Amino acid sequence: MSSPTLAVIGGSGFYSFLDEPREVEVDTPYGAPSAPLALGSVGGREVAFLPRHGAGHAFPPHRINYRANLWALASLGVRQVLAPCAVGGLQETTPPGALVVPDQLVDRTSGRVQTFVESGAAHAPFADPYCPTLRSALLDAAPGAVDGGTMVVIEGPRFSTRAESRSYAAQGWSLVNMTGHPEAVLARELGLCYATVALVTDLDAGVETGGGVDQAAVFASFAAHLERLKGVLADAVARAPLPAADGCVAWLDAVDPRHRPDRGLTRD
Ligand SMILES: [Zn+2]
């Protein structure tokens, strides 16, 4: 078996992806990832799968060890990450059931460790937080998906107030989520290509007129669309070109080797 060069990080309600996977326990300088990594084949490619929240949703968004998750994947040889997630919709253009491949994010988390950098000058370029190549693969795999949009990532675990939600919508942002940051920037720091596909499970509190967002409705909506999302991901895996030295990794070449955030990782 060759080592996996692509990984899928499953979000809420998305705890398995591969048929008859081999499980590997991986430790990292940052501790253990959310779960053992599952390895298997999809569309002729070796793929790693990691449930972001751990088995049985052990880790809420603010307690996920994002650094361990990304480091563990990279240490196995992964260079591309597809990161599905559940989101609330903030605009009429992103109704429940829609799939969205966002092109921007806004960080409204607080207190999360969001870097591997501990010394020196290593400032990851993040103007475009998602890999354009992987975004294209996801859009090609999901006809009808919304191309682009801004996802605001909140600290959670509570949902937004109506006032917060209205203020996000007023900015023109289209999605709200609790896990997209720091996952995306940690991937960039390790030179991994990374893109997300978001499933809109509900309208956020400022948009809908009922009793606000509730967890049961979010999980039920996600479950209803899970098989469709898995199909899109399998197709995107098959469509994704093999890893190439694009801008997601090339920026590291300009960083002093003593201060590279990925120092200590072995890379093919
Ligand atoms: Zn890339």
From TrEMBL:
The enzyme's E.C. designation: 2.4.2.1
Gene Ontology molecular functions: S-methyl-5-thioadenosine phosphorylase activity
Binding site for phosphate: 12, 52-53, 179
Annotated site, Important for substrate specificity, chain positions: 160, 215
The protein's enzyme class: transferase
Reactions that this protein is recorded to catalyse: a purine D-ribonucleoside + phosphate = a purine nucleobase + alpha-D-ribose 1-phosphate
Domain named Nucleoside phosphorylase: residues: 6-229
Keywords of the record: Glycosyltransferase, Purine salvage, Transferase
Family matches, as CDD domains: MTAP_SsMTAPII_like_MTIP
Positions of substrate binding: 178, 202-204
Pathway annotation: Purine metabolism; purine nucleoside salvage
PANTHER family: S-METHYL-5'-THIOADENOSINE PHOSPHORYLASE
Quaternary structure and interacting proteins, as annotated: Homohexamer. Dimer of a homotrimer.
Further facts: Although this enzyme belongs to the family of MTA phosphorylases based on sequence homology, it lacks several conserved amino acids in the substrate binding pocket that confer specificity towards MTA.
HAMAP family to which the protein is assigned, alphabetical: MTAP
Its biological purpose: Purine nucleoside phosphorylase involved in purine salvage.
Record protein name field: Purine nucleoside phosphorylase
Organism whose genome encodes this protein: Nocardioides marmoribigeumensis
